[in-house]
From TrEMBL:
Single Gene Ontology MF annotation: kinase activity
Gene3D superfamilies (UniProt xref): Thiamin pyrophosphokinase, catalytic domain (3.40.50.10240)
Residue ranges of every copy of the Thiamin pyrophosphokinase thiamin-binding domain listed in the record: 222-285
Database matches in InterPro entries: Thi_PPkinase (IPR006282), Thiamin_PyroPKinase_B1-bd (IPR007373), TPK_B1-bd_sf (IPR036371), TPK_catalytic (IPR007371), TPK_catalytic_sf (IPR036759)
Matching Pfam families: TPK_B1_binding, TPK_catalytic
Origin superkingdom: Eukaryota
GO biological process entries: thiamine diphosphate biosynthetic process; thiamine metabolic process
Keyword set includes Nucleotide-binding: yes
Annotated protein name in UniProt: Thiamin pyrophosphokinase thiamin-binding domain-containing protein
Record-linked NCBIfam families: thi_PPkinase
Keywords: ATP-binding, Kinase, Nucleotide-binding, Transferase
Length: 297
């Protein structure tokens, strides 16, 4: 995945190419390794897989999900959070998505870091996006969706809803989700948004969260084939409650039908030892993987 010198975006101007840092080089290696893998996603409530290269489950068989770090190009949404952004990664991945959304104050971040790029949508209650940023992007063709009347959902929830209403069901969320700006409550709010986005008739098939140094995905019950990164630290967290049975392959400390729960066993600080990781889980768990090297910590 080459780093583009002028990513596609509304408005004139080019983004100066930067030499890929360790994180971007590492991410590109993972993308390259997973590019040929298909995706099979089957929600129990839907009856048939949403995406290509689907694996048809037998009656009563475990649902199988074959994932990659990013969804395939086309009909995929990019959502930027109002947190510090890995600018080189955003610039490199911008063209991959058909729909780019700034969640409220993310518009300020994008204008400051990559003013030549313009999202299709700026969504939220608009209490963070500056008038200057809104005007800047509206002049470049961006639509602004003021959803301040709905205070029972977060800006990320609103972004997911806007994407689903436009027919998008694969998304990548970029931002500092790991307790950014000292707000651990925001981190849990993001995880809650992942749960909501992957439920109901407009459920997202694939959602990946990327930060400067980590990625995370919510693994719904079933069998998951994940692109690993040999040597990367990783974890499986029973974030929604006990998971009575979980089995893994491709980790240094594999789980073998174990029960995981807070107050009991939780698999953190594990290690990918293969380029593919398999997880079979009876309840939702959060998969996390570090993307940076040790000297970035």
């Amino acid at each position: 995945l080459p780093l583009p010198s002028s990513p596609r975006g509304r408005g004139a101007g080019a983004v100066t190419a930067r030499r890929p840092g360790p994180l971007l080089a590492l991410l590109c290696a993972v993308l390259h390794a997973s590019a040929s893998r298909g995706i099979a996603v089957q929600h129990k409530s839907l009856g048939r897989p949403r995406c290509m290269s689907a694996v048809e489950p037998r009656e009563g068989a475990m649902v199988q999900w074959i994932s990659r770090v990013l969804p395939p190009s086309g009909r995929s949404a990019l959502i930027l959070l109002n947190t510090p952004q890995p600018v080189a990664v955003v610039a490199a991945l911008w063209d991959r998505f058909d729909l780019r959304i700034c969640a409220d104050g993310a518009a300020n971040r994008l204008q400051e870091a990559l003013p030549a790029l313009a999202p299709e949508l700026i969504v939220g209650d608009l209490d963070s996006a500056s008038p200057g940023a809104l005007e800047h992007f509206q002049e470049r063709g961006s639509a602004v969706l003021d959803l301040s009347h709905s205070q029972d959902s977060t800006d990320l929830d609103k972004a997911f809803i806007a994407a689903a209403e436009r027919g998008f069901h694969d998304a990548v969320v970029i931002g500092d989700f790991a307790g950014g700006a000292g707000r651990v409550d925001h981190m849990f709010g993001i995880i809650q948004s992942l749960f909501l986005a992957q439920q109901g008739p407009t459920a997202f098939s694939e959602v990946t969260c990327l930060s400067q140094s980590s990625m995370m995905k919510l693994l719904l019950p079933g069998s998951h084939v994940l692109p690993g990164l040999r040597g990367a630290k990783c974890g499986l967290v029973p974030i929604s409650g006990p998971c009575e049975q979980i089995t893994t392959r491709g980790l240094q400390w594999n789980l073998k039908g174990d029960a995981v729960a807070f107050g009991g066993l939780v698999s953190t600080s594990n290690l990918c030892v293969e380029d593919k990781v398999t997880v079979e889980n009876s309840a939702p768990v959060l998969w996390t993987m570090k993307l940076g090297s040790e000297d970035e910590e």
